[in-house]
Amino acid sequence: MPLHMTKIAFSAESPASLRAWLESHPDEARLTTRYLPKRHEEMVGGSLYWIFEHALIGRSPILGFEQRESDGRWHIRLAPKLIPVVTKPKRAHQGWRYLKDEDAPRDLGDGESSGDIMPPKLARELMKLGLV
């Protein structure tokens, strides 16, 4: 089973703007990180799960990692698409974190929409109350 990662959708105004940014890259989208994950080989074939408003809202398949020559930082190479998942509360964090396959939310099925799933703000409030 592949290993996944989570990352905050920093500067995204909405899931739609995140989707637009990803889809604006024809072949692959790239994120820059300071360090190569130690378990990067396990993550190829996994996904980057996006956190928006304290909830996992979608994922982008990880294509690989590539070092930038100019400053030694690394690119996380992503498929330029946002696959919606069942909304799952997730606390914000800096950088990225590993996510095991068994802890990852499932993709939304055909006929399901994110409107059928609990809104992220409501999920966050219920999580604070210990109800989710």
From TrEMBL:
It holds the Pfam family DUF1489. It comes from the Bacteria. The lineage of its organism: Bacteria, Pseudomonadati, Pseudomonadota, Alphaproteobacteria, Sphingomonadales. This is DUF1489 domain-containing protein.
